[in-house]
Fold:
Amino acid sequence: MIDKKKLPMVAFLWVAFLLVGFPVPSSHGEEYPDPGKFSGPDACGNECHKEEVAIWKETRHALTFNEMETSDKGKEIAGKMGVKRPKTDDACAFCHFTRMMVDGKAQVMAGPTCESCHGAGRDWIKTHGDYGGKDVKKADETPAHKAQRLEQSLKDGLIPPKDLYLWVRNCFSCHLGHNEKLVNVGGHTPGSNIELVSWTQGKPGKAGSMRHNVFYAKGNQPAAVERRRLIFVVGLMTEIEYGLRAIGKATQKDVFATKMARRVKTAWDKLQLVSQAIDVKEIKTILSGMKAIDKELKLNNADPLNRLSEQIKEATKVVAQGYDGKGWAALDAMIPYSP
Ligand code: HEC
Ligand code: HEC
Ligand code: HEC
Structure:
């Protein structure tokens, strides 16, 4: 029997499934993604995205491929975790490396790459680059073909840059998807100090961000101020969602749980300031449903924490799709980035 109260949720999941092909919008869910679905950065850069590939090669995402395993810290963490080769061990490879099929064998080919963020490409890469026939250029594509092409690519797993909700979650799945053992035993950082506006829009480069706004707009300019506000709010909400879930999974009162709880509390306080500055009913509803977040941030409290995390997830989706950051100038002073 399906609980009637749960029907809207079931309906939502089904729609989400139709839209993106899987209910959890991530290029890699809980399990290691299928290497057979990856084509590698060259497949993106050969003809169309040369500039993006050149930029990516200078980012930590690309550099980690040759540096992590041989770095002192890498060896130290791997040693404590009992991991012989980070490149081939799921405990590390899930976030640090991309595997793809070469001559019928799964091989580690890169760090996090285009497809780690935009979706494993095998099923969508052809459709995505076909403007209506072999000789049709992008500029000559009909609107009807474009709409159909985008819809089909999305169904086949593309995570498009325009869809904030989908890509933001994906960042956090690696940047705040750490598990207790990795942190408490391995001595890994307990999740990145990630703030989404500065991390996506900041100056590109080795130690900086990953900005590659070179396709729809030229010159790699940062996103418009309205867009940055929306990225800020969606990032903050998603940080809370992932943080809550992490605490729900924690079993020891140690670095992992303590740091996550502090982090969620800080983000929650910030969200409260956001809510005072701009009028967004989805955020107000969440905050008013939970006055004293501190009381919930404890071990053995998975059910309430997961429930709250689900509510935030739903609200984040609505905020990401339903607002455009116009009229949110009151947030500008809170955002730790300006061009
Ligand atoms: C597949 C996992 C994965 C995904 C998805 C991912 N990252 Fe990363 N990211 C990493 C890893 C691993 C590192 C650290 C690499 C290193 O330094 O060895 C990193 C490093 C970074 C850095 C450099 C940080 C520094 O200290 O210099 C930035 C910025 C960054 N990521 C931003 C993002 C953003 C924004 C997103 C989402 C759009 C994202 N990442 C998605 C795994 C990922
Ligand atoms: C849930 C995703 C995730 C997993 C799993 C993971 N890391 Fe990381 N790791 C990151 C991110 C993200 C960073 C970037 C630093 C930060 O922001 O915390 C990072 C940074 C590092 C760094 C410092 C940067 C560098 O390249 O020197 C080392 C070393 C490292 N990880 C080693 C490991 C090892 C070894 C494993 C497996 C035992 C592992 N990591 C598993 C996400 C992950
Ligand atoms: C760490 C995650 C990450 C990686 C790796 C990554 N992207 Fe992106 N990409 C994004 C995000 C996030 C945006 C949207 C940024 C925004 O809205 O400001 C984006 C935007 C884009 C855009 C639109 C840019 C524009 O001009 O508006 C294209 C095209 C693109 N990426 C292609 C690529 C290609 C090709 C690669 C591999 C070389 C790549 N991306 C690697 C996350 C990533």
Summary: The radius of gyration is 20 Å. The mean pLDDT is 87. The pocket of heme C (ligand 1) is lined by residues 60-61, 64, 68, 95-96, 112, 116-117, 167, 170-171, 174-175, 199-200, 207, 209-210 (CB under 6 Å). Residues 32-115 form one domain.
